[in-house]
Automatic annotation (TrEMBL):
This is uroporphyrinogen-III C-methyltransferase. It comes from Lutibacter agarilyticus. Pathway: Porphyrin-containing compound metabolism; siroheme biosynthesis; precorrin-2 from uroporphyrinogen III: step 1/1. It is an enzyme of class 2 (transferase). GO terms for molecular function: uroporphyrin-III C-methyltransferase activity. Gene3D superfamilies: Cobalt-precorrin-4 Transmethylase, Domain 1 (3.40.1010.10), Methyltransferase, Cobalt-precorrin-4 Transmethylase, Domain 2 (3.30.950.10), NAD(P)-binding Rossmann-like Domain (3.40.50.720). Its EC number is 2.1.1.107. CDD domains: SUMT. Residues 279-492 form the Tetrapyrrole methylase domain. Residues 7-172 form the NAD-dependent epimerase/dehydratase domain. Keywords: Methyltransferase, Porphyrin biosynthesis, S-adenosyl-L-methionine, Transferase. Belongs to the precorrin methyltransferase family. GO terms for biological process: methylation; siroheme biosynthetic process.
Length: 515
């Protein structure tokens, strides 16, 4: 059943949470205090309000944000500011005072409310924060509990790690660090999202719950290994015989109460293949969404990053409105160096794969028919990045079907040659082989030839000696604005001048439509 969920603070955690909850069919509203962030978040299918909560007032349309909301996730951590002890609890009080008490609230708190302890720290241990920020958060927790009572759950999260927050960057290159022998308390973003989902789905309110991985690696070893994985300068910890204060967060309650299984139960999993992403190179066909394979559709729908070319239709891209879209294609006349372009695409593969993202590279038609998938597949193979390639319907095959042009037919055409004019050198030897096929009664599928007809056609006529060979130009194959222009080698240039065709255009030569 769809639930209306408001997320106050659509940042690093909140945005991914909102996407996840939306994909499960919930009605999501979000908020951010930043103008720039609100513009960036406009790409999502859920509405994000611009709301800023101050100690004395709320700026923005809070009433609309909270209206009919069943669940409110408060995800606004305290900033490093002076007077945090009074400012942060006052901010949370503004939220509480303007929210109906029957709304069920998840307050995203922190394990920083706990001090050191000789035993693992469960929720039953009294929270005695050491830093002012921890004191402020604990006071904010009490504000929430006093207002919402049994309708509020406090979720105390350990240090956050995940995509774009790799622990290798936290302490890389730093010197004379303390507490080398301390054990770390961390939680992956996917597990944070999983816990919040479980609380909502199981209606688990009126609780305090710790969120933290079960394993607690030694601090110095963990951050050195993390930096090494990213090929960054390893942090240096001071040599000391002093035993670090012990603080190990116990997550038993979250696992037992919510029947929850941590995907990243050991923070070191972020170093390994389990945390790596996926790469799929898919053929989108000629443009009509109905010609996508089911596998391609599902991969696009689940993608986090979409690398796409110029010819991919908005209809297909709109299958997934939450993924980050990166345009990596080219248009006719584009002078950008192809080698640099491909290097950039390869860099994006590498970057997003190791950030744990689901990457989909969408290509028009079929990836291995003039889609340059070979270059990308070789790079991925060399880098030992696993990938899969999903076939698509190539433009020539779609054109043949849509326009009733049998490119192979018994006693008429035994073979079809697929070629491109884009990289042709237009030499006699090159065209002689093509022309000999046409002369023998076979067909030719020519890609990217619209701008090269003045070079190709005269030579084909010269070699074949037959200006009456049929040729069909098909523009925007499979789309609503599809056009078919049938002519002969001798007349096609004049026909196109009289009836200009928008790109992309594919030519089927040597065969005629069934009429």
């Amino acid at each position: 059943m769809s639930k209306k969920i408001a997320i106050l603070g659509v940042g690093w955690l909140g945005e991914s949470l909102a996407i996840n909850l939306h994909q499960k069919g919930n009605l999501i509203t979000g908020s951010t205090s930043s103008i720039a962030k609100s513009k960036e978040l406009a790409k999502h299918p859920f509405y994000v309000s611009r709301i800023e909560v101050l100690p004395t007032k709320i700026i923005g349309d809070w009433d609309s944000f909270i209206e009919d909301t069943a669940y409110l996730v408060i995800n606004i951590p305290p900033r490093r500011i002076e007077n945090i002890l009074t400012i942060y609890p006052s901010i949370i009080a503004q939220i509480a005072n303007k929210t109906p008490k029957n709304v069920k609230v998840i307050f995203v708190s922190t394990t920083a409310v706990y001090g050191a302890s000789a035993i693992p720290i469960s929720e039953s241990i009294e929270a005695i924060p050491v830093k002012e920020s921890g004191v402020a958060v604990l006071a904010a927790e009490k504000v929430i509990q006093n207002h919402f009572g049994e309708n509020a759950t406090i979720l105390r999260l350990a240090g956050l790690i995940g995509p774009d927050r790799h622990p290798g960057k936290f302490l890389a290159g730093k010197r004379v660090l303390k507490n080398a022998s301390a054990q770390v308390n961390l939680i992956h973003r996917e597990d944070c999202i999983g816990l919040i989902n479980a609380i909502i789905e199981q209606d688990c309110f009126g609780e305090i719950i710790n969120g933290c991985a079960s394993k607690h690696p030694v601090r110095a070893n963990y951050y050195k290994n993390a930096a090494k994985i990213l090929e960054l300068d390893q942090p240096v910890f001071e040599a000391s015989e002093k035993i670090s204060e012990k603080k190990i967060i116990d997550n038993s309650k979250s696992k037992e109460l919510l029947n929850f299984t941590y995907k990243f139960d050991n923070p070191e999993q972020i170093f390994k293949s389990e945390s790596e992403g996926t790469v799929s190179i898919i053929g989108a066909g000629p443009g009509n969404i109905k010609l996508l394979t089911l596998q391609a559709y599902e991969l696009i729908k689940d993608a986090e990053i979409i690398l796409h070319d110029n010819l991919i239709s908005e209809e297909i891209l709109d299958i997934n409105t939450t993924a980050e879209r990166v345009y990596v294609g080219r248009k006719f006349g584009d002078k950008f160096c192809q080698m640099e372009r491909q290097d950039n695409i390869n860099m994006l593969f590498h970057k997003y794969y190791y950030l744990g993202k689901k990457v989909v590279r969408i290509k028009s038609g079929d990836p291995y028919i003039y889609g340059r998938a070979g270059e990308e597949a070789r790079y991925l193979t060399k880098e030992k990045i696993p990938f899969n390639v999903v076939p698509g319907i190539s433009a020539a095959l779609a054109a043949a079907s849509y326009c009733n042009i049998p490119i192979t037919e018994r006693k008429k055409s035994n073979a079809v040659l697929i070629c491109t004019a884009h990289t042709a050198d237009y030499s006699f030897d090159q065209l002689k082989g093509i022309a000999s096929l046409l002369k023998a009664g076979n067909s030719l599928a020519l890609y990217m030839g619209l701008k090269s007809l003045d070079k190709l056609i005269p030579k084909l006529i010269e070699v074949t000696g037959n200006p009456n060979i049929p040729i069909n130009a098909i523009s925007n194959v499979s789309r609503a604005n599809k056009l078919l222009l049938s002519s002969t080698l001798g007349e096609i240039e004049a026909a196109i001048k009289e009836n200009p065709l928008p790109m992309p255009v594919v030519f089927l030569i040597g065969v005629e439509p069934i009429q």
